[in-house]
Amino acid sequence: MAKAVSSVQKVLDFVKKNNIKFVDFKFMDFPGQWQHCAYPASILSADSFKDGFGFDGSSLRGWKAIHESDMLIIPDPETMFVDPFVKAPTISLICDVYEPVTKEKYARCPRNIAQKAVAYLQSTGIADSCYYGPEAEFFVFDDVRYDSGPNGTFYKVDSVEGHWNTGRDEGPNLGYKPRPKEGYFPVAPNDSLVDFRNDVTLKLMDAGIEVEALHHEVASGGQCEIDLKYDKLVEMADKLLMFKYYVKNTAKEHGKTATYMPKPLFGDNGSGMHMNVSLWKKNKPLFAGKGYAGLSEEALYFIGGILKHAPSLLAITNPTTNSYKRLVPGFEAPVNLAYSASNRSASIRIPFANNPKAKRVEFRCPDPSSNPYLASAAILMAGLDGIMNRIDPGDPLDKDIYDLPPEELANVPSTPGTLEEALKALQDDHEYLTKGDVFTEDVINAWINYKMEHEVKAMALRPHPYEFALYYNV
Questions:
Q1: pLDDT tens-digit map of 160-217
Q2: Is residue 104 pLDDT above 50, yes or no?
Q3: Measured over all CA atoms, what is the biggest interatomic distance in the chain, rounded to whole angstroms?
Q4: How far is CA 269 from the centre of its chain?
Q5: Residue 33 and residue 200: Cα distance in Å, rounded?
Q6: Which residues, at least 6 apart from 252, have a Cβ–Cβ distance to it below 8 Å?
Q7: Are strands 70-75 and 53-56 parallel, antiparallel or unpaired?
Q8: Which of 1, 193, 299, 408: CA 20 to 30 A from 48?
Q9: Gap between the Cα atoms of 49 and 47, Å rounded
Q10: Pairwise CA distance, residues 335 & 347, whole Å
Q11: What is the spatial distance between Cα 316 and Cα 135, in angstroms, rounded to a whole number?
């Protein structure tokens, strides 16, 4: 019987056969930005996948102090892809971060936290796999400018699709610009980004990433969505980072700029990242059953866990001050902590599915500014807490919650109004995250402190341009 070729050997053979010149190692910092470091391909050997490569962790946000800064990245050979945005033949490998002395995975490495969440799931015996299908929305602009100084601040984004440009002299202005909240599914020429989305999708498919759908989204000004086929938790988080990388770099090739900022436009819909989740055991789906909307008991308890922990969970799944500009009533935002079948006004939706394998829970609060490893792990931990403690999600709310009379709406819990509120909720409610040492106390405290110091307080200190419109002449 022929000996199977290891994934490490496949990488080495690929490098040699395809005359690869550089190897680019990519890894995730604490808040959620992909980092990288490139080496000549000649340095790559089988030992590289055991010994790794050293780097300075003190220079990365939320990581080590300067007096203990040495760290290691060790590439995962299963994650290799050819980077289409680099001129010289280059492969990329996603890495895990390790302590150099003990060779233990670094506790604040987001990919490590996601891996620990999967291990904890398997240790419970409830399931052996968690599948995610994220729907990450984003904007594609033609121009972006912003600045912040001691005596002035501004931002300005622009798009040829922007409804605010109907009166602009564009030599000529052809007028194909979606009105606010009317950007969902229009054909070209109102949808000017067909070729861009196709280009992204073809590149993703060349990299082995399956795409299920691509379309314009609700907002004017270039909002898009490209949906990836579901995959296991860690693998999906890896793919989501590749997806964002491909979208941003393809936009640059088209002379445009892409952003996953949740709410870049005032008065129109923001960008969410609905997370479709399901648990499986021994290749069988666990969320299909005979309960409400065809759900199993486990699925309903999973929903109960998410609803119970939602205020603290959002500190991770909606981690920016801008996230809470999206989570406001009136823009199809999932601010109502309720569940319902095929009801997009609830924060948890049960999409219609005839096939038990497609039965899933859609958590609609998260947004694409989140760190996908941390967000996926946190959602899983909240849902598992619901199953293990048999948390009743209550009755479904099969109504248009946006149109409920005030006396009924008052009985529906809502999402936190600010990042600070969510972080305080996380401070008070995080025991479900620390089970199995998935999120350590150090990770929770570091996350809260980083977000409070670098984002919440930093925003609170700065005058806002609209304050001048409100108060300058008082």
A1: 999 999 999 999 999 999 998 888 888 999 999 999 999 999 999 999 999 999 999 9
A2: yes
A3: 85
A4: 18
A5: 20
A6: none
A7: antiparallel
A8: 1
A9: 5
A10: 6
A11: 17
C-alpha 416/C-alpha 407 separation (Å) is: 20
> Distance between CA atoms of 190 and 178, rounded to whole angstroms?
6
In this predicted structure, which of 1-10, 132-141, 198-207 has the lowest mean pLDDT? 1-10
Task: State the pLDDT at residue 1.
Answer: 38
Question: Do the Cβ atoms of 46 and 87 come closer than 8 Å?
Answer: no
The Cα 182–Cα 174 span in angstroms is 18
Distance, in Å, from the CA atom of 52 to the CA atom of 49, rounded to the nearest integer, reads: 6
Whose CA is closest to 237, among 349, 366, 392, 387? 366
> What is the percent of the chain with per-residue pLDDT over 70, rounded to a whole number?
97
- Active-site positions read 56, 135, 137, 217, 225, 274, 344, 362, 364
d(CA 355, CA 288): 9
Q: What is the pTM of this model?
A: 0.95
pLDDT digits (tens, 9 = 90+) for 338-393: 999 977 778 999 998 889 999 999 999 999 999 999 999 999 999 999 999 999 99
What is the C-alpha to C-alpha distance for residues 431 and 347, in angstroms, rounded to an integer? 23
The answer to whether residues 425 and 161 touch, using CB atoms and an 8 Å cutoff, is: no
Note the pLDDT of residue 4: 57
Which token pair is 129? Answer: 């796999």
Query: Which residues does 335 contact at the CB level (< 8 Å), separation at least 6?
Result: 327, 328, 329, 347, 414, 415
Contact of 28 with 109, CB cutoff 8 Å: yes
Closest by Cα among 351, 329, 352 to 402? 329
| Phi–psi pair at 222, nearest 5 degrees | 95, 30
3-state secondary structure the chain: CCCCCCHHHHHHHHHHHCCCCEEEEEEECCCCCEEEEEEEHHHCCCCHHHHCEEEEHHHCCCCCCHHHCEEEEEECHHHCEECCCCCCCEEEEEEEEECCCCCCECCCCHHHHHHHHHHHHHHHCCCCEEEEEEEEEEEEECEEEEEEECCEEEEEEECCCCHHHCCCCCCCCCCCCCCCCCCCCCCCCCCCCHHHHHHHHHHHHHCCCCEEEEEECCCCCCEEEEEECCEEHHHHHHHHHHHHHHHHHHHHHCCCEEECCCCCCCCCCCCCEEEEEEEEECCEECCECCCHHHECHHHHHHHHHHHHHHHHHHHHHCCCCCHHHHCCCCCCCCCECCEEECCCCCCEEECCCCCHHHCCEEECCCCCCCCHHHHHHHHHHHHHHHHHCCCCCCCCCCCCHHHCCHHHHCCCCECCCCHHHHHHHHHHCCHHHHHHHCCCHHHHHHHHHHHHHHHHHHHHCCCCHHHHHHHCCC
